[in-house]
Amino acid sequence: MTIHDITTIEDIKLLVNTFYEKVQNDDLIGPVFNEKMIGRWPEHLEKMYRFWQTLLLEEHTYSGSPFPPHKQLPVNQTHFDRWMEIFTKTVDSLFVGKLAEEAKLRAANMAYMFNYKIEYFRNQGNQ
Questions:
Q1: CA 113, CA 68: separation in Å to the nearest integer?
Q2: What letter does residue 76 receive in the DSSP assignment?
Q3: Which residues contact 42 (CB under 8 A, 6 or more apart)?
Q4: pLDDT of the residue at 125
Q5: Is residue 80 part of a domain?
Q6: Which residue in 52, 63, 42 sits closest to 95, CA to CA?
Q7: pTM (2 decimals)?
Q8: Is there a contact between 6 and 97 (Cβ–Cβ < 8 Å)?
Q9: Looking at residue 102, what is its pLDDT?
């Protein structure tokens, strides 16, 4: 397989499917995802295809707010670090180029913001 940049919806699907297969089998974050996604993995994957297609290919197929479904997850910085580790390794194993780097940057920004917001809302509940 020749490694190239992310350029098509097929590339997005390969990235998303490969990544979430690793996530589902991960000892740390797998249980969190698998419990939340019971019976809904196909729906989630379709949503992730559209999300990354919109971000990377500028084909506007996703609409919505990605954060609210994550607000109550029992996760912390360790979970986000693992998520980023898996995501980065997945991208690097499949793609190289500008959009591959953009995917990793956007994922890192999202992980940081999601963790920050989850901690914020968690701390607001304790006041």
A1: 12
A2: -
A3: none
A4: 65
A5: yes
A6: 52
A7: 0.92
A8: yes
A9: 98
* Structure confidence at residue 74 as a pLDDT band (50, 70, 90): confident
Q: List Cβ neighbours of 49 (8 Å cut-off, separation of 6 or more).
A: 9, 12, 13, 16, 61
Domain that holds residue 44: 9-125
Name the token pair of 83. 């998520």
For residue 97, give the CATH number of its domain: 1.10.490.10
pLDDT at 66 over 60: yes
Is 2 inside a domain boundary?
no
> CA separation (Å) from 88 to 49, 105, 124?
17, 9, 32
Residues 6+ apart with CB under 8 A from 15: 6, 52, 90, 91, 94, 95, 103
Which pLDDT score, from 0 to 100, does residue 126 have? Answer: 56
Question: Is the pLDDT confidence value at 67 over 90?
Answer: no
Q: How far apart are CA 27 and CA 85, in angstroms?
A: 13
Rounded distance, CA 33 to CA 20, Å?
A: 9
